[in-house]
Amino acid sequence: MSKPREEKYQAILDAATEAFAEYGYFTCQVSKIAKLAGVADGTIYLYFKNKEDILVSLFSDRMGNFIQEIRQSIVKCQTTQERLFCIIRTHFKYMEENRSLAIVTQIELRQSDPKIREAISGPLREYFHLIEQVLTEGVEKQEIILADVKVGRQMFFGTLDAAISDWVSSKKPRPLEGIEELVFELMRGAFKIK
Amino acid sequence: MSKPREEKYQAILDAATEAFAEYGYFTCQVSKIAKLAGVADGTIYLYFKNKEDILVSLFSDRMGNFIQEIRQSIVKCQTTQERLFCIIRTHFKYMEENRSLAIVTQIELRQSDPKIREAISGPLREYFHLIEQVLTEGVEKQEIILADVKVGRQMFFGTLDAAISDWVSSKKPRPLEGIEELVFELMRGAFKIK
Amino acid sequence: MSKPREEKYQAILDAATEAFAEYGYFTCQVSKIAKLAGVADGTIYLYFKNKEDILVSLFSDRMGNFIQEIRQSIVKCQTTQERLFCIIRTHFKYMEENRSLAIVTQIELRQSDPKIREAISGPLREYFHLIEQVLTEGVEKQEIILADVKVGRQMFFGTLDAAISDWVSSKKPRPLEGIEELVFELMRGAFKIK
Amino acid sequence: MSKPREEKYQAILDAATEAFAEYGYFTCQVSKIAKLAGVADGTIYLYFKNKEDILVSLFSDRMGNFIQEIRQSIVKCQTTQERLFCIIRTHFKYMEENRSLAIVTQIELRQSDPKIREAISGPLREYFHLIEQVLTEGVEKQEIILADVKVGRQMFFGTLDAAISDWVSSKKPRPLEGIEELVFELMRGAFKIK
DNA sequence: TATGAATGAGGGTTCATTCAT
DNA sequence: AATGAATGAACCCTCATTCAT
């Protein structure tokens, strides 16, 4: 992909993220994205097959980035404890820096349209898998105590997700940064980290 | 409200729950709800102001029920520990018995349209408040240890929510009943319940 | 089909015939048909699947009528000579009374879109078949001399078609009625009718 | 017009003939013609004013050729009989060798858009005129008997046109060459050629 | 001259809502 | 109260045409 093409592609995704965050996928017209991206309506369709493809691309592109960042953040960690804390911090940091993406994630993660769901579920499942890997390794190394890895992941992810849900829906949210420690403290107790 | 009127009102809400669960709010046409409810399209508008009103009513009616059931389930409980377990069990039981409602909750809880969000948030906030009350009381009675009640509630609700999210999106889910103990065990650790 | 439904169906087909005749299938907007029929745009779609379906229905309905009329006109004829003359007269008469249909036939008979062609070709083929039947019978009864029935039909139909083509494209056409005898005289010579 | 310019002009017309034949004027996108001609979309507009101009040019250029060829083929003919046979043979031969042009002629000859019709009708009218000249001369020289020259032309042209219509729409057509004699035999009878 | 990315007007179709019966 | 045919506003997408390079 050539430089200017890639730039415009990203510009449209950026615009879509903002627009979807503000209006939601269905309520948001393609023309709104175009205007926000500073291109003509038709230009959108030079880069994306249709409206749905914008959403799907948005997820695979942005969530892909997110997961990669999470992954990078834990390579240097020595212990499960560190890894879990790293994920919490990176997750919060990323979402805090990408508020619109956070909103879109919150809103559209649970689309009903089966086609969209399927397309979207990929990156999310990858994230779930990553968390479960960390937990499994922790159990094996006896760094944490956990009867069921899947339920453990549900708690871990569910907690972060609920925190972000509160954060995006609040007009004056306290910074997510401020609750990293609190969240981690709960996880420490739940996973019986020494 | 007269008897037959109430009956048809509920029939439409039932139909809407099914239809929204299957197609999602936006993708689902009002005519589909009407057909499912066994009434004419126009009849819908004798009971609801518009499509949005169906969704909002669905939430306040069904979520209202849900919260009432939760409330009833914990009145007999003596300890915070018992209360938390009761909520988990009742939450899971209710959703398991009302799969479509569970799906709608998952899908539409996070609507983007501000009007819808606002309308929906009422019952949910009530539930959040209930959980926080239980946690606050637990802290006061020193039955649990918790640095921040809001974060505690985020973890508690987020975990249940994530579990149900997995459950509704799985073709062959293990029964929620089966993970009550697992979830509670994690909560016990997190809240340092003796 | 109930009475008013049938009436509106025909009204839309009438409007479509006028509109297609004036603007051509592609250039004519559905909204133009709707306005001409005195209905809302959306109403069209209660009676027809889509724009293409209007054209196809127009042909099967109107051409069906036409062929039926041709068929009826020749039942009383005794000889091939009479039958051929009857077809000429009825063909001209029908088209003269349904100028817009004549135009549409001229214009759209030869659509390129394969789907449309196929749908349209049915009634036309039926007409061709009818003509060929008459010619075949004539040959068998030795009322006409004709080396190849298909070519005979091509001449017969082609002549009528070209005459109508001139007629519809002329601002001040001489009535088709006036050339019945002339056309028949040519056919008589071509088919060596005694 | 310079040499390479003329070449590209013809290449575009060739491509347009193919493309219009396959998809029809309206269904065929300009970009398809460009791709087929091996030029960029924008290049088309260096040679033609717009899409319509391509069609019009196609007709005046190709039909001009056609008529010229017809004209040349009859100069050496001595009798009306020979001339008519020559036209039939040349007409069929030309169309057989230019199948796409034959299709376009069939399809687009009867465009509805008045502007297009007008532009197209020129070459066609010229052909009609040529045929009528031959017929008129034949009548004057008493080589044929014909009450109305215009109707005679309608029959003559209509027959050829219908034959070609069958030929282009048939998957496995018998060669037009094979029906020259058959068609001429019918004309001979119609025109009472001795 | 040639390119092809960008434009944006336009139209077919859907569907929430109304209203005559 | 109930119906469901009719409405028409709204929107996604296409594609002829332009223009900066």
Briefly say what this structure is.
The structure is a homotetramer of 194-residue chains. Chain A is mainly α and 194 residues long. Chain A has helices at residues 3-23, 30-37, 41-47, 51-75, 80-97, 99-108, 114-140, 149-169, 180-190.
SSE topology:
4 copies of one chain form a homotetramer.
Chain A lengths: L2 H21 L6 H8 L3 H7 L3 H25 L4 H18 L1 H10 L5 H27 L8 H21 L10 H11 L4
Helix pairs in contact in A: 1-2, 1-4, 1-6, 2-3, 4-5, 4-7, 5-6, 5-7, 5-9, 6-8, 7-8
Chain A binds a DNA duplex (21 and 21 nucleotides) through α1 and α3.
Pfam families (chains A, B, C, D): TetR_C_4, TetR_N
InterPro entries (chains A, B, C, D): Homeodomain-like_sf, HTH-type_Tx_Regulator, HTH_TetR, Tet_transcr_reg_TetR-rel_C_sf, Tscrpt_reg_YsiA_C
Keywords (chains A, B, C, D): DNA-binding
**Residues in helices of chain A, as a percent range:** over 70%
Number of domains of chain A: 2
Which stretches of chain A are low in confidence, meaning pLDDT under 50 for 5 or more residues running? none
Number of strands of chain A: 0
Q: CATH top level of the largest domain in chain A?
A: Mainly Alpha
Distance linking N and C termini of chain A: 50 Å
Task: Please tell me the overall pLDDT of chain A.
Answer: 93
Q: Enumerate how many helices of chain A there are, as a single number.
A: 9
* SSE arrangement of chain A, N to C: HHHHHHHHH
Q: Which oligomeric state applies?
A: homotetramer
Shape of chain A: elongated
Query: Largest contact between protein chains?
Result: A-B, 45 and 46 residues
Largest sheet of chain A: none
Report the CATH topology name of the largest domain in chain A. Tetracycline Repressor, domain 2
Supply Rg of chain A: 18 Å
Fourth-tier CATH superfamily name of the largest domain in chain A: Tetracycline Repressor, domain 2
Protein name (chains A, B, C, D): Transcriptional regulator, TetR family
Keywords (chains A, B, C, D): DNA-binding
DNA-binding region (chains A, B, C, D): 29-48
Organism (chains A, B, C, D): Desulfosporosinus lacus DSM 15449
